[in-house]
TrEMBL record:
Regions annotated as coiled coil: 2-29
GO molecular function per UniProt: ATP binding; catalytic activity, acting on a protein; magnesium ion binding; phenylalanine-tRNA ligase activity; transferase activity; tRNA binding
Protein name: Phenylalanine--tRNA ligase alpha subunit
Location(s), subcellular: Cytoplasm
Cited InterPro entries: aa-tRNA-synth_II (IPR006195), aa-tRNA-synth_II/BPL/LPL (IPR045864), Phe-tRNA-synth_IIc_asu (IPR004529), Phe-tRNA_ligase_II_N (IPR004188), Phe_tRNA_ligase_alpha1_bac (IPR022911), Phenylalanyl-tRNA_Synthase (IPR002319), tRNA-bd_arm (IPR010978)
Domain of life: Bacteria
Length: 344
């Protein structure tokens, strides 16, 4: 029995030495020390031994088992060290290499223009107001002096959910709501940016969904000359100090009188070119004095208060400022387009 155990030990130690990887070492561990291994078998057969033999063989079997286990553990550590140093040898890391560039986004040009316009008007004492894109027929039309039979209310021109609910066609309802909240007490001095929706076929200059900024100033003695001064200051700040504005008579149901506002052409400086169609002027916005009925419906006494209002398309402003020839560029989100508006 003693010889068997010693032979077992030598055999196991040799196999441990020959093991070349983790897996074959694991096989040695299972075959010698496992539940079905020879050592377990010896320990299990102890009952058959004589009383003198039993402690001697028992101790020897335990020693053999411990030695095999120790040599396997040692070999395991050796194999691991070899593995690590091989890895260190093979995988070279050059810490001086430049890192991968991180893709950096940029503000959408429409958002930049909205912020720029907001900042110009904040500088002139206006507040920014926003409101819902799904509007009631009342705030979108009725409160703006567009009665039920007005052609602009044609079901064909707007996105209706029900008879009473639609996607707003302008941001004016935000102004009507704000006036109402002021309960007939001025001043109200606000700009309202936001998305608006109209049933229209998309092309290079039209979109069924676009952005608008409207402005409203209601107080005692607000005059047309105040409108002119504010718009002149805005245009000079947004397009450049050398630009002029001119007002032409026009019509909107919510303003009286109404005007179209042109800005002098920045390309030809007024002499006439392709951009201004030889006129020297480019139309940028519509405006006027708030209609007394509109003031009245939102709770302001038209004998005590007057006001001006204006509205402009954000895409149009951006297209004029950055010479963009197709409104659809704003919605396609091609990075080659968007990345040109990165702030440096
Ligand atoms: C345009 C013209 C305009 C207004 C919008 C307005 C709002 C209230 C009262 C009166 Cl609450 N007017 N807004 C006035 C004149 C013109 O927009 O061409 N927009 C793109």
């Amino acid at each position: 029995m003693k010889e068997t155990l010693e032979a077992l030990l030598n055999e196991a130690l040799k196999k441990v030495e020959l093991a070349e990887d983790e897996r074959s070492l694991q096989e040695v561990r299972v075959s010698y020390l496992g539940k079905k291994g020879p050592i377990t078998e010896v320990l299990r057969g102890m009952g058959k031994l004589s009383a003198e033999e039993r402690p001697v063989i028992g101790q020897l079997a335990n020693e053999v088992r411990d030695q095999i286990k120790a040599s396997i553990d040692l070999k395991e550590k050796e194999l691991e060290d070899i593995h690590i140093s091989k890895q260190l040898e093979e995988e070279k890391l050059d810490v001086t290499m430049p890192g991968r560039p991180i893709m950096q986004g940029s503000r959408h040009p429409l958002q930049s223009v909205v912020e720029e316009v907001e900042d110009a008007f904040i500088g002139l004492g206006f507040n920014v107001e926003e409101g819902p894109e799904v509007e009631s027929d009342y705030y979108n039309f009725e409160a703006l002096n567009l009665p039920k039979d007005h052609p602009a209310r044609d079901m064909q021109d707007s996105f209706y959910f029900t008879e009473e609910l639609l996607l707003r066609t302008q941001t004016s309802p935000v102004q009507a709501r704000t006036m109402e909240r002021h309960q007939g007490k001025g001043p109200v001095k606000i700009v309202c940016p936001g998305k608006v929706f109209r049933r229209d076929n998309d092309d290079a200059t039209h979109s069924h969904q676009f952005m608008q900024i409207e402005g409203l100033y209601v107080d005692h003695n607000v005059r047309m000359s105040d409108l002119r001064g504010v718009l002149d200051a805005f245009v000079k700040r947004f397009f450049g100090e050398d630009r002029e504005i001119r007002l032409r008579p026009s019509f909107f149901p919510f303003t009286e009188p109404s005007v179209e506002v042109d800005v002098s052409c920045g390309i030809c400086k007024g002499t006439g070119c392709r951009v201004c169609k030889q006129t020297g002027w480019i139309e940028v916005l519509g405006a006027g004095m708030v209609h007394p009925r509109v003031l009245e419906m939102s709770g302001f006494d038209p004998n005590q208060y007057s006001g001006f209002a204006f509205g402009m398309g954000v895409e149009r402003l951006a297209m004029l400022k950055y010479a963009i020839d197709d409104i659809r560029h704003f919605y396609t989100n091609d990075v080659r387009f968007l990345s040109q508006f990165k702030r440096v």
